[in-house]
Write a structure and sequence with these properties.
single chain; mainly alpha; Formate dehydrogenase/DMSO reductase fold
Length: about 400
């Protein structure tokens, strides 16, 4: 038995006892994020949109990018986690893991909603999208789809406590369908805007889907490695290897799609592609080359190709965080190219610029959204533990 255990540990990268070190570190990080984030929230409440860097020509900035990133993580993580449960993937076929997947999806989507709510000029009017919707609007369709997913996911969570429930897997399949639609519809949300040449692309929904699966797999890998399977060298390692492989494949697919889009636009030297030029060589070059390619691509690829579980966990964290750049590289350059030549020169004002830079207040509010997601996940896991004990059959 000793040899078997040693072999399993070696196959998973030498798992040992980790203690509560990662949890204490995460609590420290949460306290810092929450403290800084509250400063940003205070600035947002006191100053409204004035401390933000967006304006009339570029009305969507960092918070909207975090919104799309959050719903992408929710959709990608749920597809893989719930799909693994339905298909019987070792380690993911457990009901306690399924409940963690549901909590993770909700913990990602709630801060995403908060981000887009804070971005609204009249946040108090947000309920109108449910009270008087127009389903010809892609925004209204997305809002209703997200809430339908959350209701079905909560129903699946409740059914997961019943050992013999014939409704669990059918409802999971329905929720998986919605979670696949999340990123695809997010891409379509931009793709249907014909006035924006950079956004008006049939490849955009596929890019959003690939980035959601990649970031969702990475986030689920990180969460399960740190919380669920921290000392598990059996089926837990099988689940982590599965998610590691999906993250690897997702990275490769996404960067192939991205290379195809960029190379076709830049192949003809006589063709001017201002949005892509902004991404590669403009004021946002560091988002693409450093955050996206280096921190979200090259370094995680190298770490995931090793056999060390700690390296996989670090790579998953980098991908889950740095892949927000995939949203920013679509969102900001698409708005930073004017449709009417000379419009920026015709009117002079700080809010009438095509170049957007997020301000300190926007970054601080972004930190608050991350802290809120961590708090929702922690609360959800505590509820999971309490509900499991309460519904357990007496010995």
């Amino acid at each position: 038995m000793t040899n078997v255990g040693t072999g399993a540990a070696g196959a998973c990268g030498g798992v040992g006892r980790r203690g509560n070190g990662p949890r204490r570190l995460l609590w420290t990080i949460w306290a810092v994020l929450a403290g800084l984030g509250l400063i940003g929230i205070g600035q947002r409440v006191a100053g409204g949109h004035l401390p933000a860097g967006y304006g009339s020509y570029v009305p969507w900035g960092l918070w909207v990018a975090l919104y799309f990133h959050g719903v992408g993580i929710a959709g990608g993580a749920f597809v893989l986690g719930a799909g693994g449960f339905v298909l019987g993937v070792p380690g993911l076929d457990r009901r306690d893991v399924l409940r963690t997947v549901v909590v993770l999806a909700i913990a990602a989507i709630i801060p995403a909603f908060m981000g887009v709510w804070l971005d609204l000029g009249r946040p108090e009017r947000a309920p109108a999208i449910f009270l008087s919707p127009s389903f010809t609007s892609m925004m209204a369709f997305n809002a209703w789809m997200y809430n339908a997913f959350m209701m079905i996911a909560v129903a699946c969570w409740l059914l997961s406590f019943r050992e013999r429930s014939g409704w669990l897997k059918p409802l999971l399949c329905l929720a998986i369908m919605f979670s696949i639609l999340f990123p695809s519809q997010s891409g379509a949300f931009f793709g249907v805007v014909g006035a924006k040449g950079f956004w008006h692309s049939a490849l955009l929904p596929m890019l959003f889907l690939a980035s959601a699966i990649t970031a969702g797999a990475a986030m689920l890998l990180f969460v399960l490695a740190v919380f669920q399977f921290k000392d598990d060298c059996g089926t837990g390692c099988a689940a982590l290897r599965y998610l590691r492989n999906v993250t690897l494949a997702g990275l490769m697919v996404y960067f192939v799609f991205e290379f195809a889009e960029f190379s076709i636009a830049l192949w003809n030297p006589d063709v001017h592609a201002p949005a892509i030029e902004l991404i590669l060589w403009g004021p946002y070059w560091w988002v693409f080359w450093i955050v996206h390619l280096l921190l979200g691509g090259a370094i995680p690829l190298g770490l995931l190709l090793t056999r060390r579980r700690a390296a996989w966990t670090l790579a998953a964290f980098l991908v889950a965080v740095a892949f927000v750049s995939a949203r920013l590289n679509v969102l900001v350059p698409g708005q930073a190219v004017g449709e009417i030549e000379g419009l920026q020169e015709a009117f002079q004002h700080d809010r009438l610029k095509y170049i957007y830079h997020a301000t300190a207040m926007e970054y601080l509010v972004g930190l608050f959204l991350v802290a809120a997601g961590m708090a929702v996940f922690h609360l959800g896991e505590r509820i999971n533990a309490w509900a499991a004990r309460w519904t357990a059959s007496p010995a």
